[in-house]
């Protein structure tokens, strides 16, 4: 399999971390990809100039790295046919296709702990005290086998009650507990999509969902996102023409743009999906993180799409309101669909962790207070990050968000992929917009989150400013022998 330029850059990850000439660091990472089989025999590598531009380095860095690997016998370089992995060993017939993620958001989590500040994965940086308190009061059930593929009854009831509290009556039989929202999307993908099926997605959208749809060999039908969320007219045209097997949308505090779909447009989208028989998935993971919460109003803004139709499939999770390490999510949908999903989940893991479900049920008892606390932290981080960006990077376009966890930032020139590479060499990881856009757009965009401690956010912006001062997308960066810069150590800053 020959990777695209974007996939290769993502697989390279934090290749420039370490000391020594950049070409040797690049050669070492490409060597690792070859040895691990991600770059199989015969795979074509990008031309020198294209890869240099994507990595924000000089062309001679790439040429020297390729030449090092050619001398080792790992690459073959021929004029007219480009650079390829040497055919030392042929791929065995019938070998399964590679399905490892090329999503930089996930790949950063797999890298060794280092001095890189992660503005790439938006999740609470540490568990709140209320979570430890809930675990301290935990009492395991007696005479319980512990296998609950559909979810612990107490938690299913608590989630259903939460929906009822939001003026959306729900029966526990309509709830499936999952190991996080990522598993929820994965189960729906396995159940509803076959290879070649169409799936309607926003452009841009949550990259973890795109990974799962690609793994299922589904055909994406991307619909652009504007100031008011998904282009509903375009989405309806896609449903009418292609009848996709699934539609996946994030209508409230959209990830990554932060937009909110107005209620009338949400109703039109639901009515169209039901009219054309398209299962509509509403990702509600960020839906309660509204900065403008009014006193005494627990759920400001538009309701979930499930309020407009009986067939909408809602997804929720505690990963953003509580902590990513509490792997509790859920699906809300028609009871027959939930029963099918439960049978599929049983095949994979027999049910989610019971102690975590018991803790989640306890947290949902007073969830409004927990959400208010989280929103206050998010609002403060949002305001600080925007102020620091305005001070140190005034040429960046950084509109305010009304909720969620991220800012959607436009660079004045260049592209997000190559700048993200340079930012890594200054010790900060950001998520390029093009990695979230199935239309191939959002090239000048970056997604930045504001959940880190305030002193860490300040330090991250200073590193971004230093990288931007050095950024020269047309000219490249350094000659091959130049040593990678090391970011200054942070005093008493943890990530």
3D structure, described in words:
The protein has 495 residues and is of the alpha/beta class. The protein has helices spanning 5-12, 22-36, 48-55, 59-71, 104-110, 129-136, 153-165, 180-192, 207-215, 232-242, 263-276, 335-348, 354-364, 367-392, 416-425, 454-470; strands at 44-45, 75-78, 82-85, 117-118, 175-178, 198-203, 219-226, 229-230, 246-249, 280-283, 313-317, 329-332, 406-410, 428-429, 431-432, 445-449. The protein has an eight-stranded mixed beta sheet with strand order 5-12-11-10-9-6-7-8, with helices on both faces. A three-stranded antiparallel beta sheet has the order 1-3-2. Strand 6, helix 9 and strand 7 form a beta-alpha-beta unit. Helix 6 (129-136) packs across helix 13 (354-364) and helix 8 (180-192) runs parallel beside helix 9 (207-215). The longest helix has 26 residues, at 367-392.
Main attributes of the structure:
alpha/beta, three-stranded antiparallel beta sheet, 495 residues, 16 helices
Q: What is this entry, summarized?
A:
With 495 residues, the chain is α/β, with parallel strands linked by helices. The protein is built from 16 helices and 16 strands.
Query: What's the average pLDDT?
Result: 88
Tell how many strands the DSSP assignment holds: 16
Strand order of the largest sheet: 5-12-11-10-9-6-7-8
Label the structural class.
alpha/beta
Strand content: 5-15%
End-to-end distance, in Å? Answer: 36 Å
Silhouette: globular
Helix count equals 16
Name the helicity range.
Answer: 25-40%
Radius of gyration: 23 Å
Low-confidence stretches: 89-98, 294-299, 475-479, 485-495
The major beta sheet can be summarized as: 8 strands, mixed
């Amino acid at each position: 399999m020959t990777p695209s330029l974007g996939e290769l850059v993502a697989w390279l990850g934090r290749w420039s971390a370490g000391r020594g000439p950049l070409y040797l660091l690049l050669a070492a990472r490409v060597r690792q990809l070859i040895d691990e089989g991600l770059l199989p025999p015969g795979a074509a590598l990008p031309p020198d100039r294209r890869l240099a531009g994507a990595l924000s380095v000089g062309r001679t860095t790439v040429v020297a790295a390729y030449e090092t690997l050619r001398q080792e016998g790992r690459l073959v370089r021929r004029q007219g046919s480009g650079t390829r992995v040497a055919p030392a060993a042929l791929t065995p017939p019938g070998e399964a296709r590679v399905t490892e993620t090329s999503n930089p958001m996930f790949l950063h989590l797999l890298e060794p702990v280092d001095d890189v500040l992660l503005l790439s994965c938006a999740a609470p940086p540490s568990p709140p005290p209320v979570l430890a308190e809930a675990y301290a009061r935990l009492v395991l059930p007696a005479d319980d086998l512990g296998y609950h593929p559909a979810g612990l009854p107490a938690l299913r009831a608590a989630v259903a009650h939460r929906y009822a509290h939001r003026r959306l009556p729900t029966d526990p039989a309509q709830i499936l507990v999952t190991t996080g929202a990522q598993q929820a999307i994965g189960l729906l993908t396995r159940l509803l999509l076959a290879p070649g099926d169409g799936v309607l997605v926003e452009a841009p959208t949550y990259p973890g969902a795109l990974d799962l749809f690609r793994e299922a060999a589904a055909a994406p039908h991307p619909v652009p996102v504007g100031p008011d969320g998904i282009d509903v007219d375009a989405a309806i045209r896609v449903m009418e023409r292609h009848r996709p097997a699934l539609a996946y949308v994030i209508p409230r505090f959209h990830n990554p743009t932060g937009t909110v779909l107005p209620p009338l447009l949400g109703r039109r989208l639901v009515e169209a999906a039901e009219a054309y028989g398209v299962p509509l998935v509403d990702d509600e993971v960020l839906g309660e993180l509204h900065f403008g919460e009014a006193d005494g109003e627990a759920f400001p803004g538009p309701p979930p799409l499930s309020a407009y139709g009986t067939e909408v499939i809602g997804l929720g999770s505690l990963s953003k309101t509580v902590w990513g390490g509490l792997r509790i999510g859920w699906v809300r949908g028609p009871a027959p669909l939930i029963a099918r999903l439960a049978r599929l989940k049983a095949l994979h893991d027999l049910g989610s962790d019971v102690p975590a479900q018991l803790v989640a049920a306890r947290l949902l008892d007073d969830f409004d207070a927990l959400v208010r606390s989280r929103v206050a932290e998010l609002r403060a981080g949002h305001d600080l990050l925007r102020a620091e960006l305005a001070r140190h990077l005034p040429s960046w376009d950084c509109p305010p968000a009304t909720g969620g966890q991220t800012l959607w930032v436009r660079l004045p020139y260049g592209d997000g992929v190559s700048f993200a590479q340079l930012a890594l060499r200054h010790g900060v990881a950001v998520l390029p917009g093009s990695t979230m856009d199935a239309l191939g757009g959002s090239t000048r965009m970056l997604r930045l989150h504001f959940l880190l401690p305030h002193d860490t956010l300040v330090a991250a912006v200073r590193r971004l400013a230093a990288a931007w001062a050095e950024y020269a997308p047309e000219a490249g960066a350094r000659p091959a022998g130049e040593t990678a810069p090391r970011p200054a150590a942070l005093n008493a800053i943890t990530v």
